Amino acid sequence: MFRKKEEPAPSLEDVPVQSRVTSILGEGTSWKGEITGSGGLRIEGLYEGKIDLDGLIIVDRKGRVESDLIQAETVIVAGAVHSDIHAERVEIRSTGRVWGDVTAVRFSTEEGAYLRGKIQMEEEPLSEEASPPEEADEEGESGPALKPKKSA
Q1: Residue 77, by phi and psi: left (phi above 0), alpha (psi -120 to 50) or beta?
Q2: How many distinct structural domains can be found in the chain?
Q3: What pTM does this model have?
Q4: Neighbours of 61 (CB within 10 A)
């Protein structure tokens, strides 16, 4: 008599591959190598090697990553990461530990998070149609950059 009309559950096809987990490295598993491509990756075990993904990377509480560089759209760290991180968005949770430099457009941490390295914040990516930045001349006045003349 008073039944709620059930709404259909959202389909995974509606969520872009880059913003959802499509692969899992499970707890108790270790892997060495190089991961590239698009999609999301959740690391619950140990991963050693380079990661370059157009998507999401989640390092779980029990997860560990040892790498020279992690590149992704979004990196969420709740475990241990020994690597530099380059991403549009980086989030270090309260249980997260990072040993390396972080370069990101958006960066956040929770209380208790650990970072031993530098943080470099980048501006939002410029559109391709944007004009080049003006440079300061020798007297410190800004204006269009002048190229030196070549001598013959």
Answers
A1: beta
A2: 1
A3: 0.70
A4: 14
